[in-house]
Design brief:
Layout lengths: L2 H21 L2 E3 L2 E8 L8 E10 L5 E7 L3 E12 L2 E6 L4 E3 L4 E3 L5 E8 L8 E8 L3 E9 L4
Parallel strand pairs: 2-11
Antiparallel strand pairs: 1-2, 2-3, 3-8, 3-9, 4-7, 4-10, 5-6, 5-9, 10-11
């Protein structure tokens, strides 16, 4: 393969990858939301978990206050807490702070979004809507991709 052909192929791959990343990013004020995903439902499960990455590109801190989704009866922000040898899940009522210039990642074993009372099974390869409510940035609607990682 010639160098010109390799260069063209590399540029095409790069542009396709950049397009895919851009499709998964959302913005509200100074908050950038990316890596949005949810785990597929286990058989018979009534609840699910979703994850996001929040980057505050602004000069002031903000707070994710709450979340909601038409895919579940209720959506809550949760955090895993380690107490000795025991890990438990706890609802976060005060919201999650996103300091200025910092990134907060929701992931398995940490902060996550609990979808309680799923209306439909979360199927791999599909998606659903989730709305995040921020104290300063306002609301941002995202499309959650269902799969095994962001």
């Amino acid at each position: 393969m010639s160098n010109a052909l390799r260069f063209t192929a590399a540029c095409l791959c790069f542009s396709m990858c950049v397009g895919l990343v851009a499709a998964e990013e959302y913005k509200a004020g100074s908050i950038e939301v990316s890596h949005v995903w949810a785990r597929p439902s286990a058989p018979g499960a009534k609840n699910g978990a979703a994850y996001v990455t929040l980057k505050n590109a602004g000069a002031d801190a903000d707070t994710l206050l709450s979340v909601e989704s038409p895919s579940s009866e209720k959506a809550e922000i949760h955090q895993h807490i380690h107490e000795g040898d025991v890990m438990r899940m706890q609802r976060v009522d005060a919201g999650v702070g996103v300091p200025a210039g910092q990134t907060v990642t929701f992931n398995p074993g940490g902060y996550h979004i609990m979808l309680l009372g799923l209306k439909n099974k979360l199927e791999d390869g599909k998606s659903f809507q989730l709305k995040l409510h921020f104290a300063k940035a306002g609301d941002v609607q995202v499309e959650m991709k269902i799969g095994n990682g962001g």
